Amino acid sequence: MGLQIDCPRCGRRDYTEFSFDSELRPDPFEAPQVGLALWARDNVAAVQREQWFHELGCRRWLAIDRDTRTNDSSGVV
Amino acid sequence: MASFEFEGRRVPYEPGDSVASALYRDGVRTFSRSFKFHRPRGLYCLTGDCPNCLCRVDGESEVPACTTPAERVARVEREGGWPSVERDAMAVAWYARGLLPVGFYYKIVAAPRVWDAVEPWVRRAAGRGAVPDVELGAGIGLRHVHPDVLVVGAGPAGLAAAVEAADGGAEVLLVDESEPALEVAPGPTAAAVATLLADVAQRPRIELLTNAAAVAVHEGPVVPIRARGQLLVAHPGRVIVATGGIEAHPLFPGNDLPGTWLGRGAARMAGRHGVRLGRRVVLVGETAEAHDHLESIRRPGSDVVAVLLDPDAGVVSAHGRGRLTSVRIERGGTEERIRCDALVVASARVPRDGLLRQAAGIEGVVGAGEAVEPNADLAAAIASGRRAGAAMTDAAGGPVPAPAPPPARTCGGFACLCEDVRTDDLARAWSEGYESTELLKRYTTATMGPCQGAMCHHHLQRFVQARSPSGEAAAATTARPPARPVRIDELAAGQRRPIEERTALHAHHDAQGARWEWAGAWVRPSDYGDLDAEYWAVRERVGIMDVGTLGKLRLSGADATELLERIYPCGVGDLPAGRLRYGVLLSEAGYIFDDGVICAYGDGSYFLTFTTTGVNTAEAWLRRWATAWGLRVNIVNQTRSLGAINVAGPRARDLLGALSSDDLAPGAFPYLQHREIRVAGVSAHAIRLGFVGELGYELHLRAGRAAQVWSALLEAGRDLGIRPHGLETVSVLRLEKGHIIVGQDTDFDTTPRDTGMDWAVRDDKPFFIGKHGLARLAEEAPRRRLRGIRWRDDAPPEGSVVTSGGAFAGNVTSSARSGVLGHGVSLGWLECGDDGSVPATVTAGHHQGEVGTPPFYDPEGVRLRV
Question: If one looks up domain A4-76 in CATH, what number appears?
Fold first, then answer.
């Protein structure tokens, strides 16, 4: 299915309104190895938690769970 | 009668005509010249598959004349011949074919001197089309659509699939690259299509888009579709590919002569457009459809002199000089020669499966109809479409095992019409060791032309199958997007900025004769026609500049100070009310990506400025970390709601004083302070800064009042010699001060240390973004430094390479002649030696310069503090 994201403020929108940032990590600067937490990616073929910016909408950051194989998004975490 | 222009004359057309049918009716027989040998080529498939009728239509190259409705066209020209397609001198290439064997250019390239000599000729003779001479329009729009089911191809199978899927409750998008009602020749298929189209029209769940070609299937599935004037990107739940089949391109010597037709093409020309194919027609048919074709071909009055529907009969060769005049046929074991001017071959069909082969391994993509079951009869195709529409097919997408096309009676002629590859060429390539479909494809370029293998891919497979029984070498070659030709501006669909952003003062600049330049999406005055006067006004008197494009954010909330302390490498919390500080934004790695000032109000709220093109990123950056750290911060982007005017020069205070009753004395409003003041009756947030190196005030005020203040300043400053200035002047003024422009003087990996701005980083802060990165980089010896260069005379252009002792030393990022100093000055990157030092003197061409540390002008900063 083409990716659409449920923005809690704006509703269900095309992914093109959003910009993808990265896989979501807890505060990377608190991690034992900051460099790894900042730049290493797991790049899984599975559901991953990631952060998106609703650039052309409410301009808030969202965390979503997305299945990288199917683009199924279970919505905002 | 309606008509279009064709090579200097008018060609009339009838309703329903394609460009091709109108031209053919008008007597045009040669539609193009072939890719390599410049052989004349005529109408052939009429389904948009073969390259023969690609013409220049309204300035655009490579448009298939057969699927382009005549009514939408003003001007048509043929392409590829010199001096003309009709009489092409380059056709001599055919007689020199012995010198131009397959892969000849690889062999020539191996001898470089020969290649240098012949390259211009090869480039001129080979290839298709030309770069369009038309002005590109407003750009191609982009639309994303999310149907439940996407059906590609509105033939019997596709229409049936769409109806079935819609009846099952799905929202269906049905696309066809042509006009389904027009492209099918008269007969039972056309009747079935008409009935199904009526069914489709009754179902509001189906959106039918004609003249819309699906060009690729990507993972997702995501299917880009080139439609009229826009690119559609479909994100369907399921894709049904019903692109049909195409009559196998027959192989025999002379198979490319104008006058040779595929059965469906001939039936369409005669039956749909009512155009006589020729005086004497020979029909060779292997399919049930051939009987219907025969009826269609006869209707406009062609004399069909021979009909060969017997499987034992076939074409041996076709003859003629530039046009078909006779064929040699075989039937019942004997050969005979028949005079004719049209030969129609309705051979068995091969799947048009480029999209399906692309979709190998992609879930949710299935084929239906002849795309997966070539030579299925009408009922079978419709049934196949129904099954796919009802999601009863369990077949995954991917390559369909292509059923072996019927054996050719003879061999010879052109296997690949697009790239002019003959069967002899395939044999020669094979003998040179290219013994698989993939290798033959790469070496001969067969299947790599505009048809992307629609005509010739199966020939390649059969050719290898006959020689390499194991089968692996004959595998289908990889199909890649695009399946149909795509224009470059369609690839860039949606990328053109639809907006030209203007500041509130745009009309004033225009009236003052501003010349414009782009800064991101903004248009800004570059200058007002007299650079010297603009420059000296600021240095000696007073100048004003519209800086309304500056990024402007207002921050408040309980954790605003905490957020900024973590974001900026400088101190923030120690700023008392009314103070401001320059701050750079660092990435996690410690690299500068934007800069601006931080104005503190003392109540935990702030006014921040950023660069014109960087503010969107900066805003996202602040919001991202506020969210990540759970900080309570409110951010308002005031970039467009506030206008801004910079007032700078030794007389700036006098000018503002004339329009304001606020106390602007140095003691009351010193450098690096900000205040609310009233200027010309308008309240403005004034920031005392020195980007240009003079006494200056940046006034931020409601955008709607900016024009009022701008006019008042110009009026009040007239006696002071005021002038507005643009970006050109400010870039010189700030360069004299050594102030960097992020993105011009910095790269993606520039640290504050590299630019000599260590002072912008407070190392004793426990944390800021980039601190880890800077600590790591501090362990490494610096590779290069941003330094100032004082030139003996003029400065070299920006971007120039500088050398020292004949060796590369760096490059110049900003460059200008300084008015006050009387010589050129630059900022530039200089490579560090092993001891970390940079050269003391450099040269750039005939320019000689001394390396130093900026600022070049007023190094103590006396002038901006007054």
Answer: 3.30.2270.10
